[in-house]
Amino acid sequence: MSARSLVVAAIAVAVAVAFADSSIVVLALPELYGTFDTTIEGVAWVITSYNLVLAASALLLVFVVHRVRANVLLAAGSVVFLGASIACALANSIGFLIAARSVQGLGGALLLTGSLPVLAAFAGSNARGVAIWTAAGTLGAGMGPALGGILTQAFDWRAIFVAQAPVAGLALLGAVGSHVSAILEEGWTSGLRRTLPANGALALVSGALVGALFLGVVLVIDVFGLSPIAGAAVVSAIPVATLLARPVAAALPMPLAAGAGALMLASGLIGLAFLPSSELAYAIASFALCGFGLGLSVPGLSHAVLGGQGTGRKATFTVGVRHLGLVLALAVIAPLLTDDLFEAAEVAELNATAVIIDGEISATTKIPLALDIRDTIDRVPEGEIPDFTAVFEEHGSRTETSVRTVQDELVAAIEQAVTRGFRSSFQFCALLAALAVIPVAAFRRRLA
Fold first, then answer.
1. Tell me, what's the pLDDT at 60?
2. Full-prediction pTM beyond 0.70?
């Protein structure tokens, strides 16, 4: 492999990581929750801060990006991203981690803004640079949770940020080795207006991905009780399906691929909304459908945005729009999910009570078991699902089949109630994906 190809690969990996960072810490949230003894809102800001700052920074950069050389932007972004990644790894409080993630979001915006022109220069053409940048961003967005889960399980949550530092360093080498002149992009405003339908669809698809990359991951880890690496294996269906969709997307007319992808993403989210408790095969199929929809819709929409003149500003604008869609979806879903889960907790408690009352175990076991279960629920911090294994073992679940049966029924009843608590949020995300079809259909001639 030539030195030029190595630089292109290094920058592409950095682009993928910057997009992956939108969701890379999702599987580490339970560990962060325990490490810093914080609230659900606190750990949520570890995700939101990065995406919010990245979106705001990218939208502001639209007004200055044409006056600065792209390799300077890429170098600045790489340095900021590298430093912020190290700061995240060294964080000793939730407040410091959120602040470092915010700085990392600024670095991500600069890196993504400068990377496309530099990739085009090294790849030999604007079209080739756009293809590499789009592929890296699409795959990175899908693989974030799985990558974070593997690193968390193998080491701990700090490894997520330690691994990102050398990636940013490699991108910095590419920036130093290139020289891309700043180009005054005439007529970029009219070009930007022509991309509004595709950007609108991308914003809606990004918002819908909150369902797969955030809600779905929280469901399999916190509700189904999977370990981070097991959760990573389940959600890896997203990037695998995204890769499988690429040749299909290339063979279809862009409006058809984008529209079909949005509908497939909506279908996968509906599948997650109606999961029959912890049925992992069903969950994997739903995640795969989301990933295939992502692979069909995002590349074509990105190419529709980035074609023609004014690529630097249009790329910067679309980065901001995509992350803004994600942040707005999170802002809607957070209170919606919180309210639904409070109701689900009440239903789960009623279901658990019914299981204990109806259980075919003796009264001498049933009454103390019920009291111990109540005490376990009271001791569990808000937002966590209690683990009743020790309670049931204390009352003979290892030797008494009837007690073990009640345990299984109790866990299933709680899982079912809490899983239903995610339904409205998944349906909202599915609606966002379905709405993305409207600008695609209405402006299909322009997009083609």
1. 92
2. yes
